[in-house]
Amino acid sequence: MTFNEKAMSVREIASKTIMSKSNLPIGDYSVNPYVGCIHACKYCYASFMNRFSRHNEPWGSYLDVKNWPKISPRKYDDNELVIGTVTDPYNPFEEKFKRTQRLLTELRGTTAKITIITKSDLVLRDLDIIKTFSNIRIAFSINTLDEHFKNDMDSAVSIERRLNAMKVFHDNSIRTICFISPIFPKITNVQEIMNAVLNQCNAIWLENLNLRGEYKARILEYIEKRYPQLVPLYDEIYRKNQNRYWVDLSVELEEFCKHKNLLYVVDNDKLIRPFSDSPIVVNFFYHSQIKQSAKKRNI
After folding, report:
1. Could you tell me what percent of the chain has a pLDDT over 90?
2. Which of 49, 53, 124, 167 fits 200 for a cystine, CB–CB 3.0-4.6 Å?
3. What is the pLDDT of residue 8?
4. pLDDT at 105 over 80
């Protein structure tokens, strides 16, 4: 997939606020400088935004650029802000509109814990601003090291560029996260990715592929076409709603972490560890149903 700027619908809109209360396990507020995301990830859960944005265009073909009243940074002290929950704050148009740069500039002075989630190395542009925050981290979404599979799934920058950007931030003592999401069963090699980032991140987040809405059929059709040998497994997980694969993968990854002397936790992103420590691995797909299955098997 490639980015075609001329094919995009881009407009500026007025927004009463850029801060939205969040139920995410990693934040109190979701902060999105844009509506829509031109990476056009085929698996993106955020495509549900079409229902609220008054857009009829396909997800990935439009972008609304927000204008908001100036933020009072101290208002958000002691809160957790997650920038980029339903858009990439460093999509290619950020180079022109600089909304995320403006956001960070306005937030200077806050003691809030800030997490930026991106698939772009454009975030390097704001390294000097980011250095001014005492509690900030950059999460790079990476769910494969295979550039061909990546290109099938999105139009964001290459995996190589994301890994290089992660290293630059880590080398500058900025906390980084490798967000392995979504994990495609039998396609995403989680251990391979973890081995590639162990020396340049402070945390590794794991999130499974959830399929629902209009993109469920799209992904299952892709699997049938490109990975026909995996059709029975995907049918089991996404049509029969069986969780055995995720239970087994959880056990496998926990054993891998023991072997690597990595701290492995479930749904807990609150631990603060020295910057020089090995990355903590946080499993976010260990849902209650999977927990119960694991207990029954004495895991």
Report:
1. 76
2. 167
3. 72
4. yes
16 vs 55, residue with greater confidence: 16
Residue 30 corresponds to which tokens in the numbers above?
A: 């979701």
Tally DSSP H helices, then E strands, for the chain.
11, 12
Q: Is 125 helix (H, G, I), strand (E, B) or coil?
A: helix
| CA distances in angstroms from 135 to 60, 73, 112, 202, 269, listed in the order given | 31, 14, 7, 13, 14
Give this prediction's pTM: 0.90
**DSSP alpha helix (H) spans, 75-230:** 94-97, 99-107, 127-130, 147-153, 159-171, 190-197, 214-226
Length of the chain in terms of residues written? 299
Question: What is the side-by-side strand order in the sheet with 80-83?
Answer: 19-21, 29-31, 80-83, 113-118, 136-141, 175-183, 203-208, 280-283, 264-266
Between CA 105 and CA 2 the distance in angstroms is 31
Structure tokens at 186: 């039998």
